[in-house]
Please model this.
Amino acid sequence: MTLPPLGSRRLLARPLRGVPGLVPLLLPLLLAPLWAGANCPCQDPNLCRPISHRPNFEVFVFDVGEKTWKFYDWSQITTVVLFETYDSELMCHAHSKGARVVLKGDVSLKAIMDPNFRASWITQQVQLAKTQYMDGINLDIEQELSCSSPEYDALTALVKETADSFHREIEGSQVTFDVNWSPRYTDRCYNYTAIADACDFVFVMSYDEHNPVWSKCTAAANAPYNTTLTGYDDFIKKGINPKKLVMGLPWYGYDYTCLNLSKDDVCFTAKAHSPPCSGVLTHQVPYKEIMKQVNSSLSGIQWDKDQKSPYYNYKDSDGRIHQVWFDNPQSISLKAAYIQNRGLLGIGMWNANCLDYSGDPIAKWQTEDMWRALKPKL
Ligand SMILES: *[C@@H]1O[C@H](CO)[C@@H](O)[C@H](O)[C@H]1NC(C)=O
Ligand SMILES: *[C@@H]1O[C@H](CO)[C@@H](O)[C@H](O)[C@H]1NC(C)=O
Ligand SMILES: *[C@@H]1O[C@H](CO)[C@@H](O)[C@H](O)[C@H]1NC(C)=O
Ligand SMILES: *[C@@H]1O[C@H](CO)[C@@H](O)[C@H](O)[C@H]1NC(C)=O
Model:
């Protein structure tokens, strides 16, 4: 029951690079509440100060490396999670725009059962954030947990202790936690209300919502409208304040290889026998690849009225039919409207690098359109 794969969220992050030239002996100096200093990599040493402003609307961005960040829409961004690599140039730039730059935090649930281990892990994260002039941490603990397991309360404690340490040690810092698209249908039984209470807000990963096993092995949308919004309703019903929820949208889609395609565009990906849907071929595709392919597809962009999602069909070089489901400004704007209606804290995406920043005129327009779709419509 592991279809489709959670691909990109499962990448093992490379270790963060330290500030060049920093040796451990200097650490105690940096821990003093004196931010401006010789080690600040920014031209203006003031840019090494943490951001303390709390925006009314969050635009929460995951960055996975390279220099595409130079082309992001910084007029909107409030937080960037450096998911793969630290980049001091990005930190200086983000701070110059009033945006926070935060660490990605992942730790084994087994290990955090030990309160001493928890404390030392948190101390390490705070020190890393300080030496890199960062503004907090995004906890991305995507591990299975059963409701009765002893790690259940340890995870809540980890979030609370991380938030307390960061808030105490770095002025104005932000601690957030990534949750599944729904508190239901999940192998992650977390204490969602207590976790949301303990941290600044949670980022809801409203994607990877389709499992072919649920639909006679057919392909379907990555983040259908109704399924997505029902997830938020369920979090709110559990007692989570909407102002603690940030909607996370996919800037990627799923490419399914079809065994056959029905006249009404249903793509069967496997024979529905046991084991269920075995042999389904699917992989994630970033929006930039989708937009390069769609004009030469068999169908062009189609719209599924029930799922409120675009898709298209194409034939590969071996003659096999594929169906690609994705999100575009149209589907994203519909979901974003819910943020206003229910008073959520903001919006974000996995991940900002998925767009085309090559500068090609058509791609540039499509990329701007995707960023624009995040804006609240007043
Ligand atoms: C979640 O954590 C809170 C605070 O620690 C606790 O009071 C509550 O009982 C927990 N909820 C569940 C369902 O265990
Ligand atoms: C949305 O989903 C809910 C729960 O599954 C269902 O009751 C409702 O009819 C759906 N609404 C639409 C518009 O499909
Ligand atoms: C497509 O394949 C599925 C699964 O094997 C099968 O149930 C269905 O009848 C097929 N449809 C067509 C149009 O061949
Ligand atoms: C694809 O087709 C659309 C609609 O005809 C057009 O606006 C767009 O420029 C085309 N994209 C590319 C990459 O050629």
Remarks:
- The CA atoms of residues 28 and 327 lie 47 Å apart.
- The first helix runs from residue 27 to 31.
- The longest strand covers residues 174-180.
- The chain has nine helices and 15 strands.
